[in-house]
Each structure stands twice: as structure tokens, then as C-alpha cells.
Amino acid sequence: MTPYPRAPGPGRSVRCPRNRRGRRWSVLIGCLPTYQTVGVWTLVLLVAVRVVQGLAFGAEWGGAILMTFEHAPWRKRGLYTGITQAGFPVGLLLANLAFLLSSRTFDGTWAWRVPFLLSAVLIVVGILIRLKIDESPEFEELEESGQVSRNPLIEVLRDDWRNDCAPSACGSGSGYGVLSPTRRPRPVCRPAGTGRW
Known about the structure:
Layout: H1 10-13, H2 18-31, H3 35-38, H4 41-71, H5 77-85, H6 87-105, H7 110-118, H8 120-132, H9 137-145, H10 152-159, H11 161-170
């Protein structure tokens, strides 16, 4: 799998779509054709879906932390946003457990497709949560005063590019937990009598 891309200020610049579309892209991964069906186009489609999914993930994560921070009581903001930060490793653990269960239950390509297809349940849960959450008081004040930006991406790149691009460049190699080996590591020595590893 490819790592999630690191985009400048994804949470601030892509506030609207957020993860409403991110999970849908996860479902699409489960629907991708096999290499035997369309050849190298499978890899191209996988990388394209993962890039879009990564941008949606970055926007959602930043948006979730911002919403939690703005809704939390003043003295508990650090605790509440820390719980939100823990969502990533907990979600990664649950995803790995889902793939482990699936690989023991299904054969062939269904072993990896089923967890992606089941992420459709998370789409429904996400929509239900979004329908019940109001905007934060801080955002409502900005909206009433007419200070909400019409195009936040252009504004960030024009006015605040240093604060967003520098941390993005520093974090571009931090694919911890997102990159995983796709094959076994090579053994230290060759098996006797073979000319390959």
C-alpha cells in the first residue's frame, strides 16, 4: 500500500469534504479489479484512491481535533483532544484485527476486500454523528460576523504558507503505522542448492 500523502494544512484548507468522502474511497478499494483483469491499471487506481483517501483522512483528522477542541470545556481541552489523537492508533489496531479475522475466514481476494467493503458501515455511523453535531460557538461567531473565508485553500497558500509548508515538509517522511511490509523480508542466507533467495 502507498502511504497517505502529506498535504499543506489539509484540515484548514479542505474543511468541507473531510471524511464524508474518505470512507467512501475505502469502500472503493474493496471494489478494485484484480491485476489479472485490468493489469497495471489496478495499481494506478489503487494509488489514485489512496492519495484521495489520504487527503480526506488529513482533513478529517484536523477537523475532528478542531471540533473537539472548540466544543470541550476550557480546562479539559488538552484531555479531549488527546482522546481524539488516540483515535488513529486505536483505529489502526482495529483495522489490523479486522484483516486478521478476514484472512482466517475468507480465501483469495475476499480476505482483503471484505474489511474495505465493511467500512461502508462506518460511512453510516459518520453521517449519523455529523447530523447530531452543531458547529462550535467560535465558528458560529465567525459566521455571524462574516469572517468565514470563501476559499480557505487559496487564503492559506497566499497568507500563511510558511506555517503550513514547513511542518508538512518535516512530517512528509513520517509514515509510521501507515506503511506496512507487503512481503516477507529476505532470509539471511540462501537455502542450500538453490540459486535464489
